[in-house]
Structures
1.
Amino acid sequence: MKKQTLRDRIIEAAYACTYESGISKLTLEDVAKQAGTSRATIYRYFPKGRDQLVSEVVAWAAFIWLEGLVEAISGIDDFEEIGVKAIMFAHKSLLNHDLLQKVLDEEPQVILPLLTVEASRIVAFVHLYVVTRLFGKTLPEHIDRDTFAEYMARLLVSTIVTPGRWDLSDERQVRDLVRCEFMAPLTTGR
Amino acid sequence: MANTSEYTELILNAQDDTNLDRIVDAALTCITRFGMTKTSVEDIAKEAKCSRATIYRMFPGGKDSILEAVVASELGKFYSAVEERVARIDTLEDAISAVINEAGLRLINNPALATVITLEPEVILPLLAFERMNQLLEFARLIGRHLLERWIVDEKSERIAEWIARIVISYSATPAQYFDITDIDSVKKLVNLFVMPGISVMNGNTQPSNG
């Protein structure tokens, strides 16, 4: 197991404190106490203070979430299956994410701008992930790997964050969505 | 903030009351200058060259209802521009490209929107995720049904409209490395490569893959 640094411990402590206080009322005193350190030490790692710590916590939580997502689809080879599994897992894990749902419910005006910023980082991550999964696959020659990966990443994140007309817990619907909106460029002859 | 059907109603009942228009235009000018939060009824009155009393007579709800009228008026202009562009087009493929391009240009080049995004991102960003974005998608499905009715009559038009809206919102909100929503040739290519195959599968025309 990776050795936990003090920086990690502060972030995890802040995450834990957010359960109690929410984001607006999170104080560095509470975080310091929870992490067994001092406010001065927190400022050494996060010189801009509370706001910086909060956005680092959001980035950290997003990373943990993405790790789980990648694990859920590792080992699947078929692209349609990857798409279906990824969307359904992502949807379910966001709904079951207690802290996310709590802050969305209680402090939407605080968390939503942070999440929108985070979403563009997630798009960049998904873009890279799609590119790596496309290696070794023969794409139809009119399709550029990066343009397609970027498009997929944007559409995926948009759908997961806001399902719109789709019930993402219904596999039949998700498969229909993946076949048409997502994978058709790869499966239709031209 | 009004919900989608209220916006729609406001757009459909577009007023030709000049006093009302003058106040809405003045409010838009003020928003472009100061942002939504810092614009006061006083500023709007000065800009419209009328008294605060006149404004409150037209908008008893004060600043909030003026802002709602501004949003409705902007959505109305947005819809007319897209509709006008689609009117001159023959094929579904070109219509979808035109909608994406026109919507992207309108969003990116709207000076009031640019001010609000720069000065008060917290006003706009929440609209782009979760429940609030569902309202935008609902609006898109509604106008999409009208815009695409020459080519698609069934519920697929709403599905395609929502898809188009996701593309427009994503590529207008953050610029892309491999695609330029303001360039019609770039848009046509994206629609041809990624959207049309999906519509063809939706219509049951699957051709076997070669890979």
2.
Amino acid sequence: MDPKLSTKIQQRDQILDRVRQVLIDNLKVRREPDEIDPDTPLFGTGIGLDSVDAVELVVSLEVEFGIQMPNDAMGRVTMRTVNTLADLVIEHQEGHQNA
Amino acid sequence: MLEKQESAIRRSAALSLMDHVVCLRLSGTNAFEVLDRTCPAELHLRDTQMMYTLLLDQAARPLADVFICCDDEDFLILAEGMEAAQLRDYFLSQTLPAEHIQVDDLSQSHGLLSLNGPYAWEVLAALLGPEVIGLPYLTFFHLGQTTCIRAGKTGEYGYDLLLPREELEKTQARLIELGQPLDLELAGLEALEQCALENWFFNIRREGKADLTPIELQLQWRVSYQKEYVGAKALAERRRTGPRQRLTCLTAADKLAVGDEIQYQGQGIGQLVNAGFSHTRKDYIGLALLDTAYACSGIDAYQTSALIPVRTVSPPVINNRSMHVSPQLHSYGTRDQFEFPPLLIG
């Protein structure tokens, strides 16, 4: 595998691991990290978070990654799965690198 | 035709006859014990609550995609992937000699209609009354001989009506009439499956036939590792050894088809197990079973064996209108007075 691709995949895996740990530590999701698949829905079905959890998740992600969650309709889109949260973190990090 | 159906599901409301869904009622003294022994998820349900799970074979491969509804002391099972007789035999085979359960095939006496769309609630409220608007996701209620279920597999507001066969035609006609001002369309299985694909809902007829366990399918949220059930040992063993492949969502501008190989630098890294054209997005959506080393979202370095570039993405690939439509604020008639975010993501 091309080292650039390998690095990109590793970086996302590390972010996914950190998001999983936030879910377990801060939102008390009773799952082992390897049970939380990247595309698992966070709300409704899936992990089953609710609107109270959503507030905690926003705060926790701000602390963990230093990101401001979008406070608009698009904010809901970024909070659908572990992977969509990782997308937001990566976008934030790339934005900082390019700034 | 398919475009209109998908558009109705995404933008207004669509009505579907769900003949592909099997409905059973489990009753009897040991209904809970037998169901708990077969259900891979923790069966914590109160009356009128329901859950979304699977039934597995001994090798932990999905046999059926099921909603389990707790109906007082009984359980309603809405299943895709098995015939009623197979499902009945499955439950009976897990019943111990001293146990008593009764399995009734409701598909013979009842039919299932489904309403899906950001304004599906509006059509249903016109039929059953405004109280349906407050029905929480994954719950149900009885109204006379009709059971109204809030579920769906399209990412939009979704309601199923389980009703006696003799009421089916009349109710269907009434819903079509009530849905006319909302541009309601009749949607078939193909449109429902395409919308399910866009929203990462499991399809037992596609990826469900790919000889995979919930681990490769990213469906571990539907199973527990803390209880015994059919397939539990095989699943625990797969978890111990680790999956070699994982289902990954991807998009492409050109045609994707089930069976297409996915390649990286000319080397095969996986295969498409589900694919379809999204009339909403105007591109192709696929589910590929990729080697775990390559199964990652946000990669645009892969292509099919027909040299069509693909991009791995984080589903859902639709910004569902239902996430932004509130029955307390909106209606189909006033939709133009509000600015909703675009349906497309990315």
